[in-house]
Amino acid sequence: MITIISGTNRNDNNTKKVALEYRRLLAEKNVESTILALDEVNVFTRNDAFIKLEETILKPTQKFIIIMPEYNGSYPGILKLMIDNSQVKDTWWHKKVLLTGVSTGRAGNLRGMEHLTGSLLHMKMLVHPNRLPISLVNTLMDSNNHFNHKDTLAAINIQLDAFLNF
């Protein structure tokens, strides 16, 4: 199973739109995936609901796709908080992860992906080398929140195909 993490808890965010697009593109490849949207769950405390989330979604997942926006030149604190509240060894060790950064600016969260990569490697995760920055994300989608920019779609499909074979 692949879990796509939409790494922000802000309402009406572009990150979730991109996560939904990744799920749609995976479905076109006959690959099942689920979305864990951090704007829909409480990861602030390690309570019973968090432990259930960890047991039912995080621990069984062998491959993660993390879509994350740029927050102040890095990645969102809510994403770090979710990781910090989990049992790192049982939840993350030796699992595979693909990173996509999104921003309305021009860098596509390159720096945030680099910051998170360091943490994921420390947690013994296998980070796929094709980390995709998606810049100006708010201009690349149509009214149905599907990517209509051919180069971006091509880059995502290359990234996903490589990850599926990783």
Structure summary:
With 166 residues, the chain is of the alpha/beta class. The chain has 6 helices and 6 strands; from the N terminus they run E-H-E-H-E-H-H-E-H-E-E-H. It has helices at 14-28, 48-58, 77-85, 88-91, 110-122, 150-164, and strands spanning 2-6, 33-37, 63-69, 96-102, 126-127, 132-134.
Question: How would you characterize the overall build of this protein?
Answer:
This protein is α/β, with parallel strands linked by helices and 166 residues long. It has one domain (2-164): Rossmann fold, CATH 3.40.50.360. The chain has six helices and six strands; from the N terminus they run βαβαβααβαββα. The protein has helices at residues 14-28, 48-58, 77-85, 88-91, 110-122, 150-164; strands at residues 2-6, 33-37, 63-69, 96-102, 126-127, 132-134. Strands 1, 2, 3, 4, 5 and 6 form a six-stranded parallel β-sheet that branches. The protein is globular and about 40 Å long. The mean pLDDT is 96.
Q: How are the elements arranged and paired?
A:
Layout: E1 2-6, H1 14-28, E2 33-37, H2 48-58, E3 63-69, H3 77-85, H4 88-91, E4 96-102, H5 110-122, E5 126-127, E6 132-134, H6 150-164
Parallel strand pairs: 1-2, 1-3, 3-4, 4-5, 4-6
Q: Any key phrases for this structure?
A:
166 residues, alpha/beta, Rossmann fold, 6-stranded parallel sheet, 6 helices, 6 strands, globular
